[in-house]
Amino acid sequence: MTAPRETGEKMADAAHRIETAGIDPRRLREVLGCFATGVVVVTTQRDDGTAVGVTVNSFNSVSLDPPLILWSLSLKAPSLAAFRSHEYFAVNILSERQQDLCLRFARPAPDKFAGLAFDRDRSGTPLLRDAAAHLVCRTFARHPGGDHEIYVGEVVSLESFDRAPLVFHQGGFRRLAEMIEQDG
Description:
Helix content is about 20%, strand content about 40%. The radius of gyration is 19 Å and the shape is globular. With about 180 residues, the protein is an alpha+beta fold. The protein has helices at about 5-20, 25-30, 80-85, 100-105; strands at about 35-40, 40-45, 50-55, 60-65, 65-75, 90-95, 120, 125-130, 135-145, 150-160, 165-170, 170-175.
């Protein structure tokens, strides 16, 4: 005989699948594109020290105390094994002049760092030059998230520069307009 709780969980799972079955992934992407985001390239290294990175717009803050951020990575990403095996990663917040880097790290390539000048922090984690900011993080937790893995990172060092961020909205890059104070 099945315990009531197990039956309830199975029923809830079945109901959830029915509710989400009608959501078209392309339409979901289109609707999510209405939310403007900054763009980051998250970098780490393989066990042999080879630099790897991926463009991400699923980045946000979680906590100030302790200092935590999160982002997610596709389970199909070639760099998944590197992020799983290396304790440290860097969130490179791209500046508005780094559209080329955004596209470079968004596309599959055997060596996305080929011919690219970059720095490394004390842990060996790659840092992209001319970014708006860098956050070097230690992996705090990883969680399943559908077809992605969610990374929570504890910020161990940070640096920012006086550069406007790269913004992505409705499938294209945008520039931030200066805010105008209004009389209230």
